[in-house]
Fold:
Amino acid sequence: MKKSVIVGQSGGPTAVINASLYGVVKEALERESSFDKVYGMINGIEGFLNGRIMDMKPLEQSGELELIRTTPGSYLGSCRYKLPEDLKDPVYPKLFEKFDEYGIGFFFYIGGNDSMDTVSKLSRYAESIGSEVRFIGIPKTIDNDLVHTDHTPGYGSAAKYVASTVREIGVDASVYDNKKSVTIVEIMGRHAGWLTAAGVLARKYEGDNPVLIYLPETAFDTDRFIQDVEKALEKTPNLVVCISEGINDGKGAFICELASDVGVDTFGHKMLTGSGKYLENLVKERLGVKVRSIELNVNQRCSSSMLSAVDLTEAAESGAYGVGAALAGETGKMVSFRRRPGKEYGLDYAAEDVTLICNKEKTVPLEWITRDGADIGQEFIDYALPLIQGEVEVPSENGLPLFAYRR
Amino acid sequence: MKKSVIVGQSGGPTAVINASLYGVVKEALERESSFDKVYGMINGIEGFLNGRIMDMKPLEQSGELELIRTTPGSYLGSCRYKLPEDLKDPVYPKLFEKFDEYGIGFFFYIGGNDSMDTVSKLSRYAESIGSEVRFIGIPKTIDNDLVHTDHTPGYGSAAKYVASTVREIGVDASVYDNKKSVTIVEIMGRHAGWLTAAGVLARKYEGDNPVLIYLPETAFDTDRFIQDVEKALEKTPNLVVCISEGINDGKGAFICELASDVGVDTFGHKMLTGSGKYLENLVKERLGVKVRSIELNVNQRCSSSMLSAVDLTEAAESGAYGVGAALAGETGKMVSFRRRPGKEYGLDYAAEDVTLICNKEKTVPLEWITRDGADIGQEFIDYALPLIQGEVEVPSENGLPLFAYRR
Structure:
């Protein structure tokens, strides 16, 4: 008897997590003879536990599936549910009963670190009970912090958004070019600086903004920062600085925590100021120049305005590759990206052991960070530039991007 | 002897202020036989006083002028210099000596309220001394707050950016759809709510986010706000609320000022929290639900990622119209937009007395604000929707938007 496919999404949204969903569903429907049904789980494994699933085929027939491809965020909804470490927990037999109930033979989970942990646990449990359900992870994260893969879908579009936004902020900052000013741009990434590093791509010529870039990979010293800013202002009166939200003192304390020690709001709450706001106040205090901080915020991960065609294509292809890998008998694997050697950018997909991937973090190599932790080198540019290439035309209606949504 | 043209930009940047610059320069160069040179002033009237001007013709020959059309921000640089009220001030004869020195006969100033004040003063001074220099204002402001014009260039693209970004934030907010959460989006506009009102365009169906929208035109009551949020959460667990940065109590106090009374940072400074952050803390305090605030920040005015084709075209056309008006003998005028009656959107340009325009503010009509100040009505939608239509392809290079910049 033919088995059914189920696909889910987990963790934070990205601009192309739905392209991976599209890739899985499209490929599964194209290989219809190999499968019974193609289901989506609503709100990930947590929703699945509550029986919240949907048939995906009607979406192809209605044309909605095409629209899903360019819709940011998680069409199926997400969750942050972590499966228990103990494989003897009763949730596991409960889940596998549900797999039986729906005739599931192929399980695809699109997500980051935590989602790969789910794939790892489910595949290990399956092995322990001799279940034949196959589990495949499809990578997704704007943080680009998964190991055993060249990069992850979602990163390219987020990097393109960051780079173009920082370039626009540079334009905005340069309007009054006779007065010294500092603009601090705070970019997502608590532990890995991949996305902040993408700020360097905004530079049009040597010495152009952003002149200073700080990642969480190196220890951040506030005195050193002030010296860097002071020196940079001599050459660049309208200075733009990129910082990761996760910049830290190298001993485990985030720079933003320095602020929240003291700031108190109207209600007597600690003010949870970001790192950018903290440094804004520091520059004002120490240098007395005009300064502002800008938090790029959630649009880094949910904007469709700066989709990278390369990223979108790879997101969909990795979903499709996962379906092929599962059919070929793989389980407990994540689809990983292998960059071909040589100057011309090219990519091969592979299936890597998910247990080696989950719960690990890949950070920016220290040798790619230059000028004593205040800039990014050419190696990073060579690495990241191919990932932001190509524009995507998002369908629009009445002057605005048209997105798919579950009704 | 033929006279020369000079054009300048003033005030904050917009996405299309350079399209107006393009319009003026292109039209002046096309009517070359009527003029001697076409100059740009660097950093507005302030730079001009210091003799900082440039010849614009080489930009057309090099192709740079085409690139300027889709570059956000002020290519020529801006200033916030306000001319003295007293027309007997020595700066006036100094300026007119400079006009003579460069053979200027036609002066175009692209800007908002304050820039129109400059045009008014210069044209009145010219009249008082019998000078034949003609002064024309080209409107520009994302705030859309100029009187005697249907709307202003810059607003359409900013509104499109706000609407699409709010729609994307709605997508981001709906990912975990089983828990109550509030996302507060703070949008630019201290005194006029035009840009915040554009949040309503993000709605895809009745009851969709943003469910609540607050403008500075009506008095904001924090208790009432909490009631609104509590009620809205019953129907919409992932609530998105749009607020103007300028929401106020109707008696002259901004809501953000309520916060800065008490918040103190690490350095003992008052925390200049925005209205969004204040309301975030208020919701947390009173309702105990998950809440975040997002400041859309400078990208509202400097992003080229959501250019409205209608806005870009009108910005360029108003520049060109200004040149024609000056040649026809007009001075002391601003190019104004007159919407044609009827369902089909159409626009005529006219020259309006700039003295009636400067130093006034047009706010959103109170009858367009509904649900006791918590929503926006259909009249606004009918007004704003034509202004955000059409997409613009911005030239790109290496995966990023390519902008013109002065070398």
Remarks:
- The CA atoms of residues 178 and 237 of chain A lie 7 Å apart.
- The first strand of chain A starts at residue 4 and ends at 9.
